[in-house]
């Protein structure tokens, strides 16, 4: 796979707030306890991120149809955005549900998805996924194990849930161009489901102090860029709620030695696209929307097409001008997309518009929401 070939085998030690040694990957690890230098001249990189993969029963049935009735094939669903995802130096998705096994697959309210989704994510070009969501405990510890096992087999890294305490304390670090990128992930809740007995570390829950400490630990261990995925917000609300904006302000204000601890925040959960905003000099995507979902019903019980609208975020990072400096976002873009529930396909709306499809009202609505907090003035543009 294109995405898989970009990841290099390595070993790097990271100690998160929980306190145990953690492993990531790199060719030449720094000396123990010393971060790798952010040397000028290293190549920059492009990061692409997308919203919730939420396979309702209709999505599972469609994947079975696309597989010819034997097994499940989710690759055709994602083929329309592979041209955006695969060229990125690092691409991150949000896997909202856990995986089932042996045909025991279910949709809402307790999701168990076919593990073949992992293969489709890899084939599309995704390098990693956040796995912390309100559905992470839908099938307990076994659901988490099956999900992470399948992602491992497909070569897709993951952050936010864990099979062991050691794994829970292990930062996910990926190679992105000339940088080491740490990916951390957290969720506001697990729909009231308790952590599995003896596994309080199974899913990362939102805790401001812990997020900051995890980010600082990753940085101390050599991460050049720290990306935080957060499953948060109020469902069906276009505007970010006060908890989102408050946490975004606090996290982006956190610094060490004059350098921000977090370089990018990626939000999921609301089911609808939400604004992008530069907060304290750091880009925050409050909500990317659902990349894959069945026909969505809003809080009023009526079908709401916004639940099938989303964006791909694309940020191009430039290396620092001096050693130890911050990797800056040189270009910020969003790509509007839509999941066509009738065709069972993710659609790049700008490309569809160029082909003559009547999608301008949907594209423009997404654009207006994304830019609703002044992101255009900070340089955010709509990409192809």
Structural account:
The chain has 384 residues and is α/β, with parallel strands linked by helices. The protein has one domain (2-382): Metallo-dependent phosphatases (Purple Acid Phosphatase, chain A, domain 2), CATH 3.60.21.10. The chain is 24% helix and 27% strand. It has helices at 2-5, 57-66, 75-78, 82-85, 116-124, 140-154, 165-168, 208-220, 242-253, 349-354, 360-370; strands at 12-15, 21-24, 45-54, 90-95, 128-130, 157-159, 172-176, 179-187, 225-231, 255-256, 259-260, 264-268, 276-279, 282-285, 290-293, 309-318, 328-340, 345-348, 380-382. Strands 3, 4, 5, 6, 15, 16, 17, 18 and 19 form a 9-stranded mixed β-sheet that branches. A 6-stranded mixed β-sheet has the order 7-8-9-12-14-13. The radius of gyration is 19 Å and the shape is globular. Residues 1-20 form the signal peptide. Belongs to the CapA family.
């Amino acid at each position: 796979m294109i995405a898989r070939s970009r990841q290099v085998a390595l070993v790097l030690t990271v100690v998160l707030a929980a306190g145990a040694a953690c492993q990531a990957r790199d060719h030449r690890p720094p000396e123990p306890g010393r971060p790798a230098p952010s040397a000028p001249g290293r190549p920059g990189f492009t990061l692409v991120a997308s919203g919730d993969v939420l396979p309702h029963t209709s999505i599972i049935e469609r994947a079975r149809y696309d597989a010819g009735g034997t097994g499940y094939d989710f690759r055709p669903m994602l083929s329309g955005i592979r041209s955006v995802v695969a060229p990125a130096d690092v691409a991150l998705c949000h896997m909202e549900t856990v995986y089932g096994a042996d045909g025991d697959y279910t949709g809402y309210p307790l999701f168990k998805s076919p593990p073949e989704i992992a293969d489709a994510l890899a084939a599309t070009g995704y390098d990693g996924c956040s796995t912390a969501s309100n559905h992470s405990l839908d099938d307990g510890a076994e659901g988490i194990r099956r999900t992470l096992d399948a992602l491992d087999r497909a070569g897709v890294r993951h952050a936010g849930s864990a099979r062991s305490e050691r794994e829970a304390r292990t930062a996910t670090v990926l190679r992105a161009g000339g940088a080491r990128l740490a990916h951390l992930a957290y969720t506001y809740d697990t729909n009231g489901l308790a952590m599995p007995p003896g596994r309080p570390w199974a899913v990362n829950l939102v805790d401001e102090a812990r997020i900051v400490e995890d980010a600082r630990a990753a940085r101390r261990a050599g991460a050049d860029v720290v990306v935080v995925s957060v499953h948060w917000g109020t469902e069906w609300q276009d505007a970010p709620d006060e908890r989102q904006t408050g946490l975004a302000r606090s996290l982006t204000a956190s610094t060490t030695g004059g350098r921000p601890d977090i370089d990018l925040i990626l939000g999921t959960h609301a089911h609808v696209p939400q604004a992008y905003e530069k907060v304290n000099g750091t880009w925050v995507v409050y909500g990317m929307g659902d990349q894959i979902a069945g026909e969505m019903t809003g809080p009023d019980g009526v079908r709401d097409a916004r639940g099938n609208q989303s964006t791909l975020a694309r940020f191009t990072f430039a290396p620092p001008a001096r050693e130890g400096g911050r990797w800056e976002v040189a270009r910020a873009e969003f790509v509007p997309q839509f999941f066509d529930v009738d065709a069972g396909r993710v659609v790049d709306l700008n490309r569809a518009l160029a082909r003559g499809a009547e999608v301008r009202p949907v594209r423009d609505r997404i654009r207006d929401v994304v830019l609703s907090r002044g992101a255009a003035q900070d340089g955010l543009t709509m990409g192809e």
